[in-house]
Design goal:
The chain is α+β, with helices and mostly antiparallel strands. It folds into 2 domains: 85 residues, Rossmann fold, CATH 3.40.50; 99 residues, LytTr DNA-binding domain (OB fold (Dihydrolipoamide Acetyltransferase, E2P)), CATH 2.40.50.1020. Helix content is 27%, strand content 32%. The protein has 6 helices and 15 strands. The strands form 4 sheets. A 5-stranded antiparallel sheet has the order 8-7-6-10-9, covered by helices on one side. It is elongated and about 65 Å long. It starts with a helix and ends in an 8-residue tail after the last strand. 23% of the residues are buried.
Length: 217
């Protein structure tokens, strides 16, 4: 059986937020897991989820931040997770909360290469090739990511400047480390070039490149 606290010790890191089902696999094991996780991080935010109200008094032994029933709606769950994030230590705030069809998850901003909007869907692309999709508006995601180095290069795409290898001013394109080439709206070429240069990009001919990497159109 997977042991959460053993995995945390092996990774030499602690959790920022724990979403815990009181009945899985047993109440006793759930309480033990919460106690050991909190021992690794005293500021741990714990959200308890259970099907039975009678477990509430037991759950308070581990000082949960929030207590929810299994019947809770997805929107309420997301609200509680966001509230817990605000109370967590800064590291967890550097992650994008994604509401998937039957679950929610965090993706670190630094792992995201670009985010695109298509047919009312947001598609989050990571540097490792994973894609997480959900219904939403790009403007809402933009407001959350701009402080972490993301730039809206056209109507439907946000790029993470840390994943950019070059900005081709002549052809209005940006190239990412994973090989993706994305169009830049003409009126935004100068702005993204300046932001890229501020992060270490070097002007070479008509392009700005990072290090020795150069996009050849």
């Amino acid at each position: 059986m997977f042991d959460l606290t053993d995995a945390m010790h092996e990774a030499e890191r602690s959790l920022d937020l724990l979403l815990l089902d009181m009945e899985f696999p047993t109440v006793k094991n759930a309480i033990k897991t919460a106690e050991e996780a909190r021992a690794l991080n005293p500021n741990l935010q714990i959200i308890i989820v259970t099907a039975q109200k009678k477990y509430a008094y037991i759950a308070f032994e581990v000082r949960p931040s929030y207590y929810l029933l299994h019947s809770v709606k997805k929107k309420i769950l997301e609200q509680e997770i966001n509230r817990a994030r605000k109370n967590a230590k800064p590291e967890i705030r550097k992650k994008l909360l994604i509401g998937l069809r039957n679950s929610v998850r965090y993706v670190s901003y630094k792992d995201i290469s670009y985010i695109e909007y298509e047919k009312r869907k947001i598609h989050v692309h990571t540097a490792k090739g994973k894609v997480f999709s959900f219904t939403g508006q790009l403007s809402g995601v933009e407001s959350k990511t701009v402080a972490y180095g993301f730039f809206r290069c056209n109507r439907s795409v946000l790029v993470n400047l840390l994943h950019v290898t070059s900005v081709d001013k002549k052809n209005s394109k940006v190239c990412l480390f994973d090989g993706q080439v994305i169009d830049i709206s003409e009126h935004k070429v100068c702005e993204i070039s300046a932001k890229f240069a501020a992060q270490g990009g070097v002007l070479t001919g008509g392009e700005k490149t990072r290090g020795n990497d150069r996009f050849a159109p």
